[in-house]
Amino acid sequence: MLRNPIHLRLEKLASWQHQTFMACLCERMYPNYQAFCQETQFGDAQLYRRILDLVWETLTVKDARVNFDSQLEKLEAAIPSAEDYDLYGVYPAIDACVALSDLIHALLSGETLEQAIEVSETSITTVAMLEMTQAGREMTDEELKENPAVADEWDIQWEIFRLLAACEERDIELIKGLRADLREAAISNIGITFNQ
To answer: If we measure between CA atoms, which residue out of 14, 35, 23 comes closest to residue 120?
Structure first.
């Protein structure tokens, strides 16, 4: 289910492309965290927003300096625990945090390829788990491949990948455009709309 040719293709990208790819997927997971925080009064969804904005800033502003170690600490303190909530929304919220934490680890370590694959898998898993939960059963890899929601998620990941892969060098306008498009769409990988 989680294997996709996109993961092999990601090897061809530069680290700024991996980082942008991850930031895009986190942008698409943010509404899941935001909705969970609103529903449960847990934490502060703005924390996620601020950290992700700092990531975008490092991608678009030359010499932007951010202490991602301290951002990672803040984020880790803001991840809900599944045991504490009898609510499905806790899982997509955790996935969103895991993805952002992978992105920050990539910025800190420079190991961007592995993390980009992780974030891709996390996002698709969020979608697949919801589909199986709604169906009330496990699904085979074949069934998941045929599942429209899973197929949509792969399509969007490929679309982001293709736009990035078409760039010879870091394209600030493209990065800003991707961010603006995703924020404007304001809909998550599982169809949760963002409340502005």
So the answer is: 23
